[in-house]
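Late entry, written up from scratch paper. The run itself happened at the end of the previous shift, but nothing got recorded in the book at the time, so transcribing now.
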Amino acid sequence: MTSMVKAVSERLRTRQDDPHDDYVFCTNDRFWFRPAYTDGKCPLCGAPAPGGAPEPPLLRRMDRSWFGLAGLAIESLGMLTLVLFMYFRG
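Output as recorded:
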């Protein structure tokens, strides 16, 4: 029974030669992780990933309040257009 459990655990254990996109392999605890979601550190042992954390995309770096402000500006222009249209056509 022990040899069967060991064989199953060997098959399930991650291997360093498994291909993964944008994943990094931690040699301390034999674990694959994405440095983009863990600030460039292994979530189990805290070891820094080679190359550090990648830079987040542009939309994640921007402050979301600017999107709200742009939406309010577009809505205000739309309401201004509607009011002027109704004033001169009505």
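The mean pLDDT is 83.
(Scratch paper discarded after transcription.)
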